[in-house]
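Human: You know discrete backbone vocabularies at least as well as I do. Show me how you would write down a chain together with its backbone fold. No explanation is needed for now; the record alone will do.

Assistant:
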Amino acid sequence: MFTGIVEELGHVVATQDLPDAARLRIAGPIVTSDAKHGDSIAVNGVCLTVVEVENGTFTADVMRETLVRSSLAKIAEGDKVNLERAAAVGQRLGGHIVQGHVDGTGTILAREKAEHWEIVHIGLPPQLARYVVEKGSITVDGVSLTVVNVSEDQFSVSLIPTTLDLTTLGHRLPGSHVNLEVDVLAKYVERLAVPHLRAIAGEEAQ
């Protein structure tokens, strides 16, 4: 589990194509300071398992399912990435509950600069729209954010200077793809509620 509070802006050192997978080597001296084989590190919001740690870098394998669902399929050497180690029991939950299981990708549509913040508009895949609500939480490239506005096909978030300076969201231009993870609590509520709602609808139809 993660919190969506990015610890470090790392970069991709190397990529390797494998059969139905890919292997990434990523530089991040903070997240690798205590990392070992088998640990979890979120890369742009994708939970990856550490295969090897060496000289401030770590290697991780990305399976086909992850490549299909996330922007990691197009990642290249030199790209900057948001990094976060798995949450430790007892630490403060600064963001929200993040699994590192990307639900899909969105596209940066526009950016509006203000004096002390920036509003970013992001395209929302239809299958995820029902899980996104105004003032609710969403994870964008591994960053826990609060939704400002939402419609059927897009939502907006407001980014403070710290987020702009210390994460990839400060560098994403319109047209860029970002990883999205909706609040898992919304999915569980839907899963539990739908059968009861259908039963009620069936009773009313009789």
User: Anything to note?
Assistant: The radius of gyration is 18 Å. The domain at 104-189 is CATH 2.40.30.20 (Elongation Factor Tu (Ef-tu); domain 3).
